[in-house]
Structure formats: C-alpha cells, structure tokens
C-alpha cells in the first residue's frame, strides 16, 4: 500500500496490533486523522440532510423533532469530534516532534491514551445518537436541556470524556515544546505551526475543565434535580450560558489557532519566503490565547446582561479581532517578492485568508453591540461561524492534508485534480454561506425547521452551494485514496520546503532523524542575503 | 441611497426609529469590509501574477516588516474598530434605556406562543397592538424555557428568561404590521412560535383599547394588573411583612419603593426596578435591603408569571400621592434610563 522504499514508521510493524499499541506520535497522528475524517463525513451527512430539509418551507423530508436532533448532532459531531481534534491531534501529533527535532512527544503513553479516550467518548456520543439523540443544540442551553425528554445524557457524558482526550493532548504538547526542543532550537526559531499548537494547548488545558464542569452540572441537574440552573429552586439559567461560553469562546480559538499555524507554514513554503513578521504572528498567537478568555459575554448581548457588561465584552472582542488582522497582513506581506507556486495548499491558503477576513469582520460588526441586536441568533451568526470554521479551519485542514500528504504517505496527489478540487471547494463555500449572511440580514432565526416563505430563495441557493461542496469533498476523497496506493513517489521534500519537518525522510523513520539536525536559523529561510525593508 | 443599500443587503423594512439608526452603521461597516476585502483580494492576485514561480529555484530576498509598518498594521484597524465600537455602543446604550413616557406591555413567552398583557387590560395571544409614534416598553418573562422576542423590522430582540424580567423598547413611527419570531431555540415548535406587531394610528389604538376593555364579558371584567396584584399580595401573605402605608415592618414598605435606590446589606445599593422586584420575589436573599433580616422565602414555585407581573404593577402603583397628581389608569413609573 505504501512505497516499498526505505524503512519508515509505516513499515515498522504491519499488524493491526502494532498500530493499536503504538507509542509513535506519527502513527497516533495518522489514527487521529482517520478518525476525525470519519466524523467529518458523518457531520457532513447531517449537514446535507439539514440543507435538504430547508429547501422548502414546511416539511420537506423530516419533521420538527428529527430536524432539531439533526442540527444538534451536526453541531456536536463537527465541534467535538472533528474541529477540535482535527488539526492539533492529527497534524499536531505528527508534526510537532518532527518540527522541533525530537524523537517523540514528552508522554507517548498518555498520547495513546488520548486516542482511546477519544474513541470511548465518540462511541458514547454515537450511542446517544442512536438512542434517539439530543435535541438541545450543541450549546445545551438550560433550562431546555435539563427538561427535554430526549437522550441528552449520553451526549453530555460522551463530550465530557472527549474533553479529557483534549486536555491530555494539550498537556503533552506543552511539555514537549518546553522540554524536547533540539539543542540550538530556541523559542524564537520555532516553526509558527509549533507556536500555534502551543497557544492552542494552553487554551485546551485551561478552558476544557470548565466545559467538563458545566456538562457535569447539567447532567446532575437532569439526574438528581440539583437545581443549579432552575429558577424554580433559586437557580439561574443564565449561569449556564456564562460557564458554557467561558469555555466555548476560547474553544473557537482551539479550532482556529492551529489552522493559522498551518497557513503560516504553507504561505512561507509556497512563496519561498521567510514570514513577513515572525514576531507579530507569535505575539498575536499568544495574545489570542490570553484575550480570548475575556470575551465570552459577546454571546449574551440580548440575554439581559448589564449594558456596561455588554460594552466591556464588546470592546474586548474588538481586541481579539486586531490579533487576527495582524496575522492576515503578515501572511499577505509574506507573498510580496516571493516565488509563488500555484499548488493546492496555496489555493486553500488564499481562500482561508479571504474567508477569515470576511468572517472576522462580521465578528467585529457584532462587537459593536448595537448591530448584534438584529443579527444575534439568526443565520448571520450561522454564516459567521461557518466562515470561520469551514471557510478558515476546513480550508486550512484541506491545505494541511495536501501539503503534508507526501510527508505522511510518501506519495503525491495528482496536482491538477487537486487544484481543480480546491477551486470547486472555494466556490462551493461561497455559494453555500453568502446566502446565509443575507438570510440573517433578512431576519431568519437559526435552528428553524420551518420558515416563512419569503426566506425560501436564499435557502435554495445555499443548498445548491452545499451540494457543490459535497461534490468537491467527494473528488478529494477519491484522488487521495487513489494516491495512497498509486500516487507518484514523492521523495523526501517534494515542495522544496525549508520547514523543519522536511529535514527527515518522507515518510519519516520511526525515530524521525538518523542524525541530530542543527538549527543555525529559524524555519523557512530561503534567501542568502538580507533585505531589511519592505521597500 | 438608504433604500438602495437596504435592498442590496436584503434587510427588511425599517419599522422602528432604532432600525434606521442601526442600518446606517450597518452600511458603513459592510461597505468598509467590502472595500478592504476587495483590496486584499486585489493585492493577493497581483502578488500571485507578479511573483508567480518561474523556476523551482527562483531566488527570493529575505524581507522583514519594518517596525513602522507593523505599527501601521496594528494602529489602523485598531482605531477603525474602536471608532465603530464607540458609534455602536452609543446606539446600544440609547436603545437599552427606555424613555419615560413609554407605554408598558407585559410579554410572557410560553412553548410556543406569546402572550401580551396591558396593565389596564386586555391581554392577547400572539398579536401585539401598539400606537404609532409612541415609545412602547415590553417587559418580558417566560413560563418555561428561554425564548427570544424578535422583530426583524425593528432590528431588535431580547431574551425572555424564566424567573426574571428583561425589557426592550421601541418606537414605530408609522402604522403597519411586523412579524414577531422566536430567536432562542425552545424545543419542538420553536420555528413556528410566531406572532405579529400591529401598529395603529394613536387614535385608532385608543379606540381599539377602549373597545377591547368594554367588550370583555361582564364575568371577566377587565381587572387591571395592579388590582390583581393587590389580590395576589393578600392571598400570598406578602402584606404580613410589607406594608403599603410607608411604615417599615419585617420587610421594607412597598409605598414608593418602585424607583427608589435601596442601600444593601453588606454595602452597595440597588435601584428597585422591575428586575430587582422580580428577583426579590424569586431569590429574596440575593440582595437584602440594609437593616432587614434575611428571612423572606423564595416565591418562584408559588407565583405564576402573570401573578409576578401583577405584583410588580401593584408595587409600581403605590406611589405617595402629591397634590395635583391623580392616580392614573396607565402605569406610573420612574424611568430606569435617560
Ligand atoms: Cu465568542
Ligand atoms: Cu423559540
């Protein structure tokens, strides 16, 4: 199945058992990649069902209850089973040790445990889905989530378990980056992807316990009637929202920061340039990780929180947007005077920058507080976070998949087909989600199984776009599967990249490096002489 | 221009004074976003063409952003964002502060309908009738889960939360009809929990209200909310601890309580508005007025949403009479805002 070339991590033990008991960060990364891709497919099928139901007002293929369960499962699957582990657990595990010149992560056994915790949590969640499935939305707002009769409990427990997988992965990366960097590889020489994973890990370790706690409280409320969120017993339903968003706003950055790391790598590699402003990208990564914890109230402008509170959260949210703006300018500057190769990872990078900018600016508009009163809980918000989650993170995920496919498998995907698919995905995305912004402007609330007829034309446009997207994903799945076996053998560094991970063979041997690599400069130094100014 | 942009962005009709204000900010923001997005796209495509790779080993220079450029990249968006924030937050403060002469209507969300109650009667399901050109303040609560009262034409929504009151105000300048939607997911029929705001010319509104009050069957004489509140207060035993005469007893007197700043046990003070009065019924020990023992039980399970609203109206009606001021049928209150 894989190139019969030299010894690699793929040929070191060929049995299933050797995979199930592996401590090799690369194999663990590959397993996470397979698992998250599977759940991306599941969540995508849910999304398609939703889009089909929304083709017409009234009933198209399912009733209200089925629809309400379907959007809950779509959200839960995509957020916790795909988006959060996708880049850190799959690509992070594979690449971070390679990028810092280490043989493995700091705690290889914990790393394996995080795979099993993820599988366990996912199984419990899946079982809950077959048991009928929760109908609360992925946000589990009380008091609805504590009173509805559907199978909320297994989903809560499943997500709770997955949380531990996330925490272990985060802890592992923090310890790895601190202790296992090769001699001479100082902090300010670290690849930007490593910085992004490091920032993400901090958020994972600090925020995920709050999610675990709040899910546990909802479970307690359902099982023994604890009354914490129940106003009839002196509880406060809004307390849930504060706790939930205290996790879930930073969680947005758990999903976005790694993708920013991917883009920082890809933009350098495909323009043969050093990062335009390495330190701005590093500091803004840390800035996002920190300030992201103080913006959760922007999800509650209409909930009756104080006017002053809304203002403070709005202003903090503006600050987070600045960090993102800085990165976009730095990536754009990297292209300046580069040698730009039109390859699929670069196309995804361009799509990423555009969608992140547009989606981010809508976020800035929400942070003005007054505009949010119209947009809150409408399709505008749905479009906004899909711009960030699909337009940015999934684009980066696909970019990473194409950029590092030769690193992981030793083979290349057909370039022309990959470029075509990237263009198709970008246009499919625009066709799906731009109509949703307009739906939000028109006043279409989210989580609606049924809607007044004047919203229909935009819904039809969005569904058409979604089928284009689905077609694009199908093509990608097809040629990647084909390339695993029949793709052109890549060689060690098919892209000519100066990223540190390419210093080992592709696919890498079990212990990554045969000789200890040296690090006289930072990553992506292509030039020989220095030009200090942009002019 | 306004009309053109409104249609371009698919915004619905501008049914309130706030809608016009907020739409202008919307245009400024979106047009700026488009302009910068086009700029970024143009620069990106220009780089792509100009610096396209010709050979696999094209030499590239090492370019690092100079500090002034970094400062520019931070400074320009930061000042733009802060400017927008100041503009937006000003509108937000304005729209969060109901004017003094607003007409009050109580709104109760319930799976899956809206109930509107006028302090002097009547009450209606799913249709809210209001006069044009006069501010209306809605006092929202819910009987079960959280709902959100949303009128797209007013660019305005507010959550209806069980166990507490939130408020929202609007002024519809012209007569017309505006759909009401529920914007917070509330279960099975969330998507069909719809209603309508009917804006009538002021004279027609008065006539409608009179007719409604007159036409109620005798057995259901329109009991004003304040009257009902007085009955509830007696039935629930509130008056055993709270006087309506101004004399302090086990709890603070209700006379003139509404709109007063009460010092709190443990420091600080609270404005006795609808939200505080409701909170004190549901969770009395949260904020105890200084000088009183924390002995009041919570009434959440004992008071329906209607009874709670009625009690609040009763307390609001207990204002010390001053010469020349006659008790009004419409609620009298001190505004919490401007
Ligand atoms: Cu957020
Ligand atoms: Cu609802």
Automatic annotation (TrEMBL), chain A:
Gene Ontology cellular-component terms listed: membrane
Q: Which residues cross the membrane?
A: 28-52, 72-98, 110-130, 150-171, 192-220, 244-264, 276-296, 308-334, 346-369, 381-405, 417-438, 458-482
Bias-annotated ranges (Basic and acidic residues): 525-535
Q: Does the keyword Coiled coil apply?
A: no
What range(s) does the Cytochrome oxidase subunit I profile domain occupy? 11-520
Which Gene Ontology MF annotations are present? cytochrome-c oxidase activity; heme binding
Q: Which keywords are on file for this protein?
A: Electron transport, Heme, Iron, Membrane, Metal-binding, Respiratory chain, Transmembrane, Transmembrane helix, Transport
Q: Which domain of life is it from?
A: Bacteria
One GO BP on record is: aerobic respiration
The record ties this protein, via InterPro entries, to: Cyt_c_oxase-like_su1_dom, Cyt_c_oxase-like_su1_sf, Cyt_C_Oxase_1, Cyt_c_Oxase_su1_BS
Localisation per UniProt entry? Membrane
Bilayer topology term? Multi-pass membrane protein
Q: Where is this region: Disordered?
A: 506-535
Q: Is Coiled coil set as a keyword in this record?
A: no
Q: Which family does it belong to?
A: Belongs to the heme-copper respiratory oxidase family.
The protein, known as = Cytochrome c oxidase subunit I
Automatic annotation (TrEMBL), chain B:
Entries under Gene3D superfamilies matching the protein = 1.10.287.90, Cupredoxins - blue copper proteins
| UniProt GO MF annotations | copper ion binding; cytochrome-c oxidase activity; heme binding; oxidoreductase activity
Instruction: Tell me, in one coarse class, where this protein mainly resides.
Output: membrane
Q: What class of enzyme is it?
A: translocase
Give the location in the cell. Answer: Membrane
Q: What is its EC number?
A: 7.1.1.9
Domain Cytochrome oxidase subunit II copper A binding per the UniProt entry, residue ranges: 100-211
Q: Which GO terms describe its cellular component?
A: membrane
Residue stretches spanning the membrane:
27-51, 63-87
Membrane topology, from the record: Multi-pass membrane protein
Tell me which domain of life the UniProt entry assigns to the organism this sequence originates from. Bacteria
Q: Does the keyword Translocase apply?
A: yes
Q: Name one GO biological process term.
A: ATP synthesis coupled electron transport
- Which residues are in the Cytochrome c domain? 224-319
Keyword set for this entry?
Copper, Electron transport, Heme, Iron, Membrane, Metal-binding, Oxidoreductase, Respiratory chain, Translocase, Transmembrane, Transmembrane helix, Transport
InterPro entries, per the entry: CcO_II (IPR045187), CcO_II-like_C (IPR002429), Copper_CuA (IPR001505), Cupredoxin (IPR008972), Cyt_c-like_dom (IPR009056), Cyt_c-like_dom_sf (IPR036909), Cyt_c_oxidase_su2 (IPR014222), Cyt_c_oxidase_su2_TM_sf (IPR036257)
Q: Which Pfam families match?
A: COX2, Cytochrom_C
Q: Which family does it belong to?
A: Belongs to the cytochrome c oxidase subunit 2 family.
Its biological function?
Subunits I and II form the functional core of the enzyme complex. Electrons originating in cytochrome c are transferred via heme a and Cu(A) to the binuclear center formed by heme a3 and Cu(B).
Record protein name field: cytochrome-c oxidase
Protein species of origin: Corallococcus interemptor
């Amino acid at each position: 199945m894989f190139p019969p070339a030299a010894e690699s991590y793929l040929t070191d033990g060929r049995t299933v058992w050797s995979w199930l008991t592996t401590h090799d960060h690369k194999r663990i990364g590959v397993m996470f990649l397979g698992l998250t891709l599977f759940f991306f497919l599941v969540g995508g099928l849910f999304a398609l069902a939703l889009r089909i139901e929304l083709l017409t007002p009234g009933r198209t293929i399912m009733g209200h209850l089925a629809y309400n369960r379907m959007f809950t499962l779509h959200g839960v699957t995509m957020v916790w089973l795909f988006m959060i582990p996708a880049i850190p657990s799959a690509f992070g595990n594979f690449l971070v040790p390679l990028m810092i010149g280490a043989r493995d992560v700091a705690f290889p056994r914990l790393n394996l445990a995080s795979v099993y915790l993820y599988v366990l949590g996912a199984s419990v969640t899946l079982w809950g889905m077959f048991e009928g499935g929760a109908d609360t939305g992925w946000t589990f707002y009380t008091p609805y989530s504590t009173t509805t009769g559907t199978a909320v409990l297994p989903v809560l427990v499943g997500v709770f378990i997955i949380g531990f997988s996330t925490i272990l992965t985060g802890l592992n990366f923090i310890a790895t980056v601190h202790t296992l960097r090769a001699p001479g590889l100082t902090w300010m020489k670290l690849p930007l992807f490593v910085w992004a994973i490091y920032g993400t890990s901090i958020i994972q370790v600090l925020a995920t316990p709050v999610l675990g706690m709040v899910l546990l409280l909802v479970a307690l409320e359902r099982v023994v009637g604890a009354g914490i969120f129940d106003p009839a017993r002196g509880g406060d339903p809004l307390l849930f929202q504060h706790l939930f968003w205290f996790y879930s706003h930073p969680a947005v950055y758990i999903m976005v920061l790694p993708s920013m790391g991917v883009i920082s790598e890809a933009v350098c590699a495909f323009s043969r340039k050093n990062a335009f402003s390495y330190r701005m990208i590093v500091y803004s990564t840390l800035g996002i990780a920190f300030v992201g914890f103080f913006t959760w109230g922007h999800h509650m402008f209409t909930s009756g929180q104080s006017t002053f509170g809304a203002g403070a959260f709005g202003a903090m949210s503006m600050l987070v947007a600045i960090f993102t703006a800085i990165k976009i300018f730095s990536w754009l500057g990297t292209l300046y005077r580069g040698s730009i190769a039109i390859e699929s990872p670069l196309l995804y990078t361009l799509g990423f920058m555009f969608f992140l900018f547009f989606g981010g600016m809508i976020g800035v508009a929400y942070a003005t507080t007054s505009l949010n009163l119209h947009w809150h809980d409408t399709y505008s918000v749905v479009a906004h976070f899909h711009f960030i989650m699909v337009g940015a993170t999934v684009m980066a995920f696909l970019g990473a998949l194409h950029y590092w496919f030769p690193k992981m498998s030793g083979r290349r995907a057909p370039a022309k087909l990959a470029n075509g698919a990237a263009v198709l995905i970008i246009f499919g995305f625009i066709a799906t989600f731009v109509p949703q912004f307009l739906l939000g402007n028109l006043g279409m609330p989210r989580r609606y199984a049924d809607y007044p007829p004047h919203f229909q034309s935009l819904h039809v446009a969005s569904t058409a776009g979604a089928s284009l997207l689905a077609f694009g994903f199908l093509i990608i799945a097809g040629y990647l599967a084909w390339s695993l076996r029949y793709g052109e053998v890549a060689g060690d560094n098919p892209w000519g990249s100066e990223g540190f991970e390419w210093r080992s063979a592709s696919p890498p041997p079990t212990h990554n490096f045969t000789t200890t690599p040296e690090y006289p400069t930072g990553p992506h130094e292509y030039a020989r002489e220095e030009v200090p100014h942009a002019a | 221009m306004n009309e053109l942009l409104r249609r371009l962005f698919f915004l619905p009709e501008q049914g309130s004074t706030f809608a016009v204000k907020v739409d202008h900010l919307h245009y400024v923001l979106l047009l700026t976003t488009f302009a910068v997005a086009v700029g970024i796209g143009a620069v990106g495509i220009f780089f792509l063409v100009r610096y396209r790779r010709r050979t696999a080993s094209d030499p590239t220079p090492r370019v690092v952003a100079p500090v002034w450029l970094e400062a520019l990249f931070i400074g320009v968006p930061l000042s733009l964002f802060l400017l927008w924030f100041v503009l937006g937050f000003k509108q937000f403060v304005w729209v969060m502060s109901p004017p003094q002469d607003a007409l009050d209507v109580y709104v109760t969300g319930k799976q899956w309908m809206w109930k509107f109650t006028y302090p002097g009667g009547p009450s209606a399901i799913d249709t809210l009738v209001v006069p044009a050109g006069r501010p209306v303040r809605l006092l929202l609560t819910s009987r079960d889960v959280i709902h959100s009262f949303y009128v797209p034409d007013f660019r305005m929504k507010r959550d209806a939360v069980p166990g507490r009151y939130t408020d929202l105000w609007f002024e519809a300048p012209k007569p017309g009809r505006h759909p009401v939607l529920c914007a917070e997911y509330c279960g099975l029929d969330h998507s069909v929990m719809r209603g309508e705001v009917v804006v009538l010319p002021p004279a027609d509104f008065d006539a409608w209200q009179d007719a409604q009050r007159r036409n109620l069957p005798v057995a259901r004489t329109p009991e004003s909310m304040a009257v009902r509140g007085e009955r509830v207060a007696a039935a629930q035993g509130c008056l055993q601890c709270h006087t309506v005469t101004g004399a302090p007893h086990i709890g603070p007197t209700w006379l003139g309580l509404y709109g007063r700043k009460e010092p709190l046990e443990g420091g600080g003070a609270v404005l006795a508005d609808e939200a505080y009065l409701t909170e004190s019924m549901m969770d009395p020990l949260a904020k105890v007025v200084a000088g009183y023992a924390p002995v009041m039980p919570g009434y959440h399970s004992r008071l329906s949403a209607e009874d709670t609203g009625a009690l609040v109206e009763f307390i609001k009606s207990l204002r010390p009479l001053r010469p020349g001021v006659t008790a009004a049928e419409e609620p009298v209150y001190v505004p919490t805002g401007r």
